[in-house]
Amino acid sequence: MPDPTPPGPSTASTPCPTASPLASPTNATPIRILLADDHALVRRGVRLILDREPDLEVVAEAGDGAEAIEAARNQEIDLAVLDIAMPRLTGLQATRELVALKPGLRVLMLTMHDNEQYLFQALKAGACGYVLKSVADRDLVAACRAAMRNEPFLYPGAVTALIRNYLDRVRHGEEDPDQLLTPREEEVLKLVAEGHSSKEIAEILFISVKTVHRHRANLLHKLGLHDRLELTRYAIRAGLIEP
Predict the structure, then answer these.
(1) Whose CA is closest to 59, among 35, 41, 94, 43?
(2) CB–CB of 98/108 below 8 Å?
(3) What letters, b where the CB count within 10 A reaches 16 and e where it falls short, cover 116-153?
(4) Which one, of 50, 63, 8, lies nearest residue 136 by Cα?
(5) What is the pLDDT of residues 100-152, one digit of tens each?
(6) What is the pTM of this model?
(7) Domains of the chain with CATH codes
(8) Which of 3, 104, 108, 194 is the most buried (most CB within 10 A)?
């Protein structure tokens, strides 16, 4: 593992400003961690960082991506910390397999590569965080806790890369691939979630009831949902209405 960076103010993602991400939760069951890296010395150093925290426990180790998948099959784990460059299966390939095998599993990438391509591939594969080995002593513990809160954790350079990528797409007029719904479908979704009838929605949006029904059917199909209740829950998660 590279020499640790001298302690200093961390600019890594800290999504919960009311509590320090480094503060150790009390009276909590330890987070069970699978650690995968093809260098035993690196694993030993990372394990020292994690095991000194009362709420974190490395319960399994692997020397490559294939071993990591096998370990996940045989061991109850909550979080996988994977290196990217490993034999047999890379950390990226292992991430795709792991999230398919155990949908509730969180995955962090721990790598020496400050590389935008790897970053985007990791997020696409299903990783919820990207931590550099050079600052593992500063960021890794906070990243593990953020992952278990279902919050993303990226080093400052990664955040900059994401913002730059988004602005480039907007500048070139590219459609955001994550935008599933059209503006009209979002309007219909919000009104459905607010409890309006099809007739009321048609009057508010100046469209026919038949068109409202078509938009509603499209919403259910696109989102893989089944009824108004599920549409309402989705609208709350999307921030379209207040819970």
Answers:
(1) 35
(2) no
(3) eebbebbbebbbbbbbbbbbbbbbbbbbbbbbbeebbb
(4) 50
(5) 889 889 999 988 888 777 888 888 888 988 888 888 888 899 899 988 988 88
(6) 0.58
(7) 31-170 (3.40.50.2300), 183-238 (1.10.10.10)
(8) 108
